[in-house]
Amino acid sequence: MALSGIPVSVIVTPVLFLVVLTVAHLINFATPIPRAFWDAITDAGRLLPVALDPIDRGLNQGDWSQLDWLLLGRLGLVLVLPGMAFMVLLWIWVRALFWHAGAGGVLLSIGARDPRPHDLEERQLGNIIHEMAIAAGIKPPAVKILDHKEPNAAVVGSTPDDATIVVTRGLLDTLDRNETQGVLGHLIGSICNGDLRIAMLLLSVAQTFGLLTAILAAGSARSARRALWGAVRGLVIRDDRATQQVADLLSREQQIEDPNQRQGCFSFVKLPFQMAAASTSFLILVSQSLFFGPILSAMWRARRYLADATAVKLTRNPDGLAHALQRLQREDSHFASADSTGLLFLHWPNTSGAPAGGWHPGLARRMGRLVAQGARLRREEGAGVGVPRRRNPLLQLLGAVLTLVVAALSVVGVAAMLAGGVMIMTVTLMFVGMALFAIHGFFTVLPDVIHWLRFDAVPLAREVYSAIKSLVSQAR
Predict the structure, then answer these.
(1) Residue 440, Cα to own-chain centre: how many angstroms?
(2) pTM (2 decimals)?
(3) Nearest Cα to 194, choosing from 159, 153, 161, 155?
(4) Would you call 317 helix, strand, or coil by DSSP?
(5) Where does residue 329 rank: exposed (0-12), middle (13-18), buried (19+ CB within 10 A)?
(6) Confidence of residue 92 (pLDDT cuts 50, 70, 90)
(7) What is the number of alpha carbons within 13 Å of residue 228 lying toward its C-beta?
(8) 3-class SS at 246?
(9) Are 88 and 2 in contact (CB under 8 A)?
């Protein structure tokens, strides 16, 4: 979590300095703060121009002899460490908020219900889950049903003891017993392989970035304030439904400003925080798209392959899961109410917030691996999967050219994103720096203003009032 917060820390740290400086000045009115604190703040503020001046001289004049690497290291620590520590604290906050809610909040948010005892399909589902749990040597997980026509299934929970398997009604109506057994074997395999903790970790990282954006945008966006208040309230009052609603809010893209909000003088005060929130959102997008997102999604896709292999081992029937994936390939398995927890499902299409490559591997790739484990696909649905085809040299050449073009465009896109990130960070730091100087100047002048109001302004107002009264009396 700390490493993933390094790019964001460059924005968060100056905002933290702005808040700390404001609070320190307010406290200083009540009780004097030691001089050493103000000296440390002053030294930290002077560190940036002092460290960057040799770099500017080297770029413009070619003189790198005065470059101080130790000073640059101190600057890096000052810019990164406070933001990293703040990100870790936010992550602990998110973990404390959502860990105890576990499966309960997720199930309530997506509308899951208990199986109906008189329904044969739902009773059979419970029997299959018990069989798979016995084969895996784990406690049978609870069972819930989603009344959606889309065929899909998921496993939710934070530990194997509170794991719950959620199956849509559409999956029961679409798959036969062997295919359902293959799907349940995949979910039981996820529990056995420890995927629940990994899934909760991945969700908490995304929610931590959402909480950070909500904090920065709380002054100008009502949705951000609602998410932040829910996060604070959830630490005191345990409410699974409310907690999961907060999780959904944090998983979405936060609004930086309410669209219908009136602008006034207070907008100048909010501007540094709005810029910081916008920059944070952009840096999160860049880091998830280029750095941490692809790594985490590749790890989760590997866990999906492992769960498929575990399902084959538990069921001893690779055809069941392979045929189930074939059916899912021609069906729509997506429903909007579970977008925030899509990585917990057997399969989920790539959405706008998914990292490059998606959280789930392609169904064709999964079926290909199952074929390598002995699965036999249905010819009418799986023709050509795992079967070598004769390659057309012209199509191969065209594919190679398209690959090069896409690679070149990707490099240009990455360079543009990085350049845009640097530009946005520079503008944001400039606005935050101006706010720091304005806050410091305001509180520096404020004692003199208060003194003038108490001892000079009142007598002056009395003299003006007497003069006006005298003029009015003469006019009468």
Answers:
(1) 33
(2) 0.71
(3) 159
(4) coil
(5) middle
(6) confident
(7) 16
(8) helix
(9) yes
